[in-house]
Amino acid sequence: MADKQPHLNGAYYGPAIPPAEQPRYRPHRERSCCCCLFGILWKILVALIVLVGLAVLIFWLVVQPRYFKFYVTEADLTQFDYYSNNNTLHYNMVLNFTARNPNKKLSIYYDKVEALAFYEDVRFANYSVITPMNSFRQYKKSSSTMSAVLSGQQVLPLDNDLVSELNQDKIGGVYEIYVKLYFRIRFRLGDVKTRRFKPKVKCDAKVPLRTMGNVTLFQTTKCDVDY
Ligand SMILES: *[C@@H]1O[C@H](CO)[C@@H](O)[C@H](O)[C@H]1NC(C)=O
Ligand SMILES: *[C@@H]1O[C@H](CO)[C@@H](O)[C@H](O)[C@H]1NC(C)=O
Ligand SMILES: *[C@@H]1O[C@H](CO)[C@@H](O)[C@H](O)[C@H]1NC(C)=O
Ligand SMILES: *[C@@H]1O[C@H](CO)[C@@H](O)[C@H](O)[C@H]1NC(C)=O
């Protein structure tokens, strides 16, 4: 019998499937087609995620967004006297700052800048920093100056340790003033402006008291910019 020697001619493909049995295979074929559709969708999804990731990476590398850099450049302190009889601090100080935009592609809008001044942990003054305009645009790779005039008197119930530290600083002629600044900024790339960011800046400045007829040199102090 021919079908018992399949290896002789190599052309034996088994018995033909009877027509009645064919419907049994159809559901199976539909399911595998469904699976392969999901497979394609999955691959498209993964490819999209990779593309978006790549686009973000390239954007980041091209734009290289960074915050500004911030320095205290000048400090002119003419009074910092604490009177224990009425617990009052009389102070008079001008601080000048420089903000530098290191970005090659982004400008920065400074919408609002607020400064608080502390001696040790005691806040003695807050002031809205005077910027050239109320809200101004700083172009890429440029610097702007801002200054804060801190002047007035403040009732501060300081403890004895702090009073003796203040007296020591008075003898040394240099006060350690800690300034905290609150920013509201936006970035601009081309015509697109971002949402508001609120970085905080902390400056530890050693401020010399200006004595009569002598201008003491203030050392430019770099501040920490927190995101
Ligand atoms: C506190 O006392 C000092 C000296 O005793 C005085 O010069 C200063 O004006 C007083 N400050 C206030 C706010 O009264
Ligand atoms: C601080 O800045 C103001 C305004 O730019 C300027 O008039 C003043 O001389 C500066 N102060 C010091 C101590 O450099
Ligand atoms: C300082 O801050 C206090 C509370 O945060 C506020 O009441 C006061 O008006 C501020 N002073 C100035 C000069 O901004
Ligand atoms: C000003 O200060 C410098 C350095 O502290 C000092 O050498 C100089 O004698 C002072 N000049 C006057 C007029 O006090």
TrEMBL record:
It comes from the Eukaryota. This is Late embryogenesis abundant protein LEA-2 subgroup domain-containing protein. The chain crosses the membrane at residues 34-63. Keywords: Membrane, Transmembrane, Transmembrane helix. Residues 97-203 form the Late embryogenesis abundant protein LEA-2 subgroup domain. Pfam families: LEA_2. PANTHER family: LATE EMBRYOGENESIS ABUNDANT PROTEIN, OS05G0367900 PROTEIN. The keyword Transmembrane helix applies. One of its GO terms (cellular component) is plasmodesma. Its main location: membrane. It is a single-pass membrane protein. The keyword Cell division does not apply. It comes from Glycine max. Coiled coil: none annotated. It is found in: Membrane. GO terms for biological process: defense response to other organism.
